[in-house]
């Protein structure tokens, strides 16, 4: 006689699966019964402090707000609010490869390293030269351009 193909492990997995299905069905029926006898959707209110509460807010605590006083967006700058910003930075050439045409400059203020390409040079530079430069957004970050020797 042939042996059964069903192993103990398979029967246990099947029992677990059936039990899970029954529990899911019971939960579904309980939700349906609760929805029928419930009074509907519960409401949540926002009180004058912005907190969620289950009771309606007191109309006497309501504050009238003028719609014109609400500013949407960034307020316009007025005369005298502008800060003077110097686009020219000073730094020192830490590395420059003449054969490849690029190098790096360390800013003297914040010690940041900036990439410099030979196309961004005004004067010819060498390693350890003090330079002034401007920053420009490149593909991989900020690049030093208009580099002049000091």
UniProtKB/TrEMBL annotation:
SUPFAM superfamilies: Nucleic acid-binding proteins. The keyword Secreted does not apply. Keywords: DNA-binding. GO terms for molecular function: DNA binding. The keyword Iron does not apply. It holds the Pfam family CSD. It comes from the Bacteria. InterPro entries: CSD, CSP_DNA-bd, NA-bd_OB-fold. Residues 1-66 are annotated as: Disordered. Residues 88-149 form the CSD domain. Residues 10-37 have a biased composition (Basic and acidic residues). CDD domains: CSP_CDS. GO terms for cellular component: cytosol. This is Cold-shock DNA-binding protein family. The lineage of its organism: Bacteria, Pseudomonadati, Bacteroidota, Flavobacteriia, Flavobacteriales.
């Amino acid at each position: 006689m042939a042996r059964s193909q069903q192993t103990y492990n398979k029967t246990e997995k099947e029992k677990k699966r059936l039990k899970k299905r029954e529990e899911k069905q019971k939960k579904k029926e309980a939700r349906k019964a609760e929805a029928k006898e419930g009074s509907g959707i519960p409401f949540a209110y926002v009180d004058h402090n912005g907190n969620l509460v289950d009771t309606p807010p007191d109309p006497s605590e309501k504050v009238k707000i003028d719609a014109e006083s609400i500013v949407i967006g960034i307020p316009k700058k007025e005369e005298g609010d502008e800060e003077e910003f110097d686009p020219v930075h000073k730094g020192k050439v830490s590395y420059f490869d003449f054969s490849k045409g690029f190098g790096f400059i360390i800013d003297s203020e914040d010690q940041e390293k900036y990439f410099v390409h030979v196309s961004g040079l005004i004067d010819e530079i060498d390693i350890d030269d003090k330079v002034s430069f401007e920053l420009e957004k490149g593909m991989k970050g900020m690049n030093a351009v208009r580099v002049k020797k000091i």
